[in-house]
Amino acid sequence: MKRALAAALAAIVAAAPAVAQTAGAVPTLSAQQQQTVDRLIDTGLEDGLAWELVESLTTEIGPRLGGSPAEARARDWGVRKLKALGFKNVRIETYEMPYWERVHEAAEIVAPFPQSLAVTALGRSVATPEGGLTAEVVRFRTQLDLEAAPQTGLEGKIVFVDESMARTQDGSGYGTAVRKRSQAAVEAGKRGAAAVLIRSAGTDSHRNPHTGGGLRGEGETAVPAAALSNPDADQLARALERANGPVTVRLDIQVRTEQSVTSGNVIGEIPGQTDELIVIGGHLDSWDLGTGAVDDGAGIAVTTAAAKLVGDLRGKPKRTIRVVMWGAEEVGIYGGKAYAEAHKDEIDRHVIAAESDFGAGRVYQFDTRFGDEALPRADVMEAALRRLAIGPGNNAAFGGADIGPIRALGVPVVSLRQDGSDYFDLHHTPDDTLDKIDPAALRQNVAAWAAFIYMASEMDGGFRE
Predict the structure, then answer these.
(1) What whole-number distance in Å separates Cα of residue 415 and Cα of residue 340?
(2) Helix (H) or strand (E) holding 260
């Protein structure tokens, strides 16, 4: 009798609707919703789909430079995968963008200590003259030192910005270190320099230079720009210290550009009971040196696998889940900007958005960017994620680069912050390959994302107010 009564009570609880969240009430999950969250987490921790997806993408497509034929093949791959997994309304939304690719890159110390240097061109760098250029090197310890330098005295020289990057769990050292990548060529060009070399924006000690988008001015400020691996930056700095006179370097960068090529965003949906949208995803493109496993094949795989778990639940989610595989993020966030432009008229339907674009490390913190009245809903989400060793964060979430354009239009965002302690050892290097991904950490990501997506769909009320 007791057993029958317990079973009846369990059935009543399982069938109970979500707890109403009336004005002034503290939001919570119903017993049924909490059970579903726990089931999603348990399933996510055992799910192998994310690994299958990132293995497939990095093996069958490989590097996927924005605007390239390889990125086009990746879009076709994305359509096939989303359709095979049961997503609906699968499509490619195209846009036009400028194109840049490296053709050749080389550097060497010519005198007084002749030797080659491990170097890679920065994205959108202009070319050197055919055969390269040779010039004296002038070293600056930081980008700020270069910006404070006189406007004369660097004519015809190669500027070397030797600023290192701090290793941090949250990747905060990148914001400081990356400034030189985007601004050194501009500042050197203003002062008449012939070219720029920077110490890679990375934390490794291997001869793997880190590429990345390098902003540049036009006309006389457009100078060739390349990154040295960290050991080679050390070597050049020592050469400058030991030399009794000038150190000269030959730099040879050849590139190919096109004014306009076609790229696109791949979109698939799990239709909900309403047309309100939860937008998640990663960027499909990668730099051309590695196979783009951690940046950002992992993000594509995690968000797709997590959405699939929620879609496999009995019955439709309350809100529609839209997975976006953004194109051409690395070379200028073209996909994110195009998405915002294409969907600006339906921006009010976008309830919440998030992008996974920080590798495959374990999620350790949950950040939000909600309206003040919606913060209690963040507390509910944080509490549900605690069992995955994910702690509460702040209400200043970044959301992701591709999310930025719709965040600027008022869409609330979250960040499932990943452990990035070694992320910048791999970032934008030839070492960004599948073997660097820990399958267990990838599954923890899937579990966290599935739980978040489900709660964002089922929770009464929005996140703007």
Answers:
(1) 19
(2) strand 248-270
Structure tokens at 167: 């290793």
pLDDT, position 21: 43
* List of the chain residues with pLDDT < 70: 1-25, 215-221, 465
Tally of CA atoms within 13 A in the half-sphere of 416 that contains its CB: 35
Cβ atoms of residues 337 and 264 within 8 Å: no
Residues 393 and 337 in one domain: yes
Whether omega for the bond prior to residue 412 falls within 30 degrees of 0, making it cis, is no
Q: How far apart, in Å, are the Cα atoms of 109 and each of 115, 117, 128, 200, 263?
A: 5, 7, 16, 18, 39
Q: Find where tokens 């996909």 sit.
A: 335
The reported pTM is 0.93
What confidence score (pLDDT) does residue 216 get?
A: 59
Q: Is 186 a member of any domain?
A: yes
Identify the pLDDT of residue 7.
37
Q: Is residue 233 part of a domain?
A: yes
Both 236 and 93 in a single domain? Answer: no
Which residues span the domain enclosing 186? 113-246
What's the rounded Cα separation, in Å, for the pair 6 and 235? Answer: 73
What is the structure's pLDDT at 26? 72
- Residue 314 confidence (pLDDT): 86
The residues assigned a catalytic role are: 329
The reply to whether 146 falls in a domain is: yes
